[in-house]
Design a protein that fits this description.
The complex is a heterodimer.
Chain A (H helix, E strand, L loop, with lengths): L3 E12 L2 E13 L4 E5 L6 H8 L7 E10 L2 E2 L5 H7 L4 E4 L3 H4 L6 H12 L4 H14 L5 H5 L8 H13 L5 E5 L7 H18 L2 E6 L2 H7 L2 E6 L2 E7 H6 L4 H8 L46 H5 L5 E3 L2 E3 L2 H16 L1
Parallel strand pairs in A: 3-8, 3-9, 6-7, 7-8
Antiparallel strand pairs in A: 1-2, 1-4, 4-5, 9-10, 10-12, 11-12
Chain B lengths: L13 H5 L2 E13 L4 H4 E4 L2 E4 L3 E13 L3 E5 L6 H8 L7 E6 L2 E2 L5 H10 E4 L3 H4 L6 H12 L5 H14 L16 H13 L5 E5 L7 H18 L2 E6 L2 H7 L2 E6 L2 E7 H6 L4 H8 L39 H5 L5 E2 L5 E2 L2 H5 L3
Parallel strand pairs in B: 5-10, 5-11, 8-9, 9-10
Antiparallel strand pairs in B: 1-4, 1-6, 2-3, 6-7, 11-12, 12-14, 13-14
Helix pairs in contact in B: 6-8, 7-8, 8-9
Classes of the chains: A alpha/beta, B alpha/beta.
Chain lengths: 338, 353
Amino acid sequence: MALLDVNNLDVRFALRHGDVHALRDISFSLERGERLGIVGESGAGKSVAAFSLLNLIAKPGFIAGGSVTFDGQVLNRLSERGLRKVRGNRISMIFQDPMMTLNPVLSIGEQMVECLKAHRRIASKEARAIALDKLQQVQIPSPETRLDQYPHELSGGMRQRIIIAIALLLDPDIIIADEPTTALDVTIQAEIMALLLDLCEQHNVGLILITHDLGVVSQVTQRMLVMYAGRVIEQGPTREIINDPQHPYTQGLINALPQMATPGEKLNQIRGSMPSLSNLPSGCAFHPRCDFINRADGQPRPACTQQVPGFVESGNCQVACHMVAEMLEDRRLKEETL
Amino acid sequence: MSAPAQTLNVPPTQNEESADSLLQIRDLKKRFSLSGDFLEQLRFKGGKLVRHQEHVHAINGVNLDIKRGEALCVVGESGCGKSTVARTVMGLLTPSEGEIRYDGNRIDNLSSRQLLPYRKRMQMIFQNPYASLNPRMTIQQTLEEPLRLHHPDWKRAQIVDKVEDVMHSVGIDPDWGMRFGHEFSGGQRQRIAIARALAVDPEFIVADEPISALDVSIQAQVLNLLMEAQQARNLTYLFITHDLAVVEHFGTRVAVMYLGTVCEIASTATLFDKPRHPYTQALLSAIPRLKDDRPQHIRLTGEVPTPVNLPSGCVFHGRCPHANTRCKQEIPVLQTQNDGTRVACHAVEEGRL
């Protein structure tokens, strides 16, 4: 069994006018030391997915169904006390904004020691030594001085290095990184991503990387999930999806990147925008924006507007699309008749 | 050049270039005071009352020419002064030193009344469409406002026609005019912001990170819209961005900025094909590309220094792998290369790079 196993996870937010279904039917797994990317646009549910792994969803949100199993424990059935032993200890998180994550009134050293003491019985001196070691690992210049500095004295890139050091503090099995470099400049982003990748490989730590940046995902992760309107619509090995995306949305997303077009030519855009979760289109949530809802003979495919597509296997990938399913079925029939 | 050349560093090509340029920026400098008002600047030092002033040096001597019909992209990391350049050009900030000429006429020292005719010819699109639309105005009112201001003689029907026209051209349904900004998604809001800029038929548009706040699929839509508008209306753009992939697609020429100075200007194809300045090289190698697995990016050491106390010599020398003693002392000037690229780097000049 995989280290982390997510099964049919279903998350809702209870609002005045009824429940909003933020995640539907999310299933994936992560092996030890594996790096997984979760990609999607804002509103796709990728951050909710990350937060719900550690049951960090605040009211009115709640996990309505499914399970998150980590190393044999079902995390969404654990008590707060039990969860606290996992959070930050065996699964740690890196958030988008390093200024919001660090406590502005505690020095870097105090925050790191506090974190160690919360999980281990350890002397302050020893904790400080571990903190110093982690700061060295994330290649912060003059780490001794940094321990006594406050977050506002450091630059954005430096802060994010500290966050990575804190995430590694207790030698976790998995790090969940939610848009870790979005707030940073390109050159700093490249450094931080390279650092995170090196450290994960060195310590055999699993990584769940949430991002909207396909370039980052393609360089860092081994497998990826593409999310749209609260569902996973395509998953598989990163390289295969980037090189040969099956789902029309994934295709659109990749082709919309300026680096995929000839300079000066029109970009391949996806029309419309992501639907609101409280008002999803019937059938496949992507169908109003999809160019492939007609069959080969020009007639609209009724399934697209009526029925939520299930996953079909296409190579090593799983795709939730009626068009792909039909194509594969046609191919199978052709092969049978031959 | 009518202005007295007080320094030697006037690039030789400047006069030739200025012939067909719509906008000329000459030795532009902008400082922001950090020290508050006069009384707050007074300090006791050694028994004497002294005035102590500190400045953020946002722009330190920028020279740019924007030619008619081109899209000049200015790229750089946060804090490099690219947005300050945009705002100074638009007259939203007054330059501390230097000149801005629009169509041959100096505009940086005009009063707002004198500037009004130029405001009609140059418009701005801002980064965050959630902040740039007035939440208490309907879309119709938002789009009518610039028309009323710049065409006081127009009749009501004429204004309504024009608004409908411009809404069509950006792909917004004219029936939505009675709605408010918050009822729209980010991409639609940015379309409305573009419509507002296009309403007065400008010839020059300053776009400050117009797609940075948008999702990938929406970015493509808005970028396409900007390109269509450029073709249909023969617009000139000053396009500020940090996203090099967008620049490669959109820009005619690119100016790379670092810490308030321009370090390289080249045509887009040349810059991406053959980046000269070490900073440009590092910047290009840092773009996360889809296809190559693990790129060899040039790792820069350290971080961008503070613009309060600028480094001596070349502002990039602290992070530059090719820096020597000359770089630490002497400020490099933009120098034209064989292919027209202009680079401010001692290493390139000496042939070390």
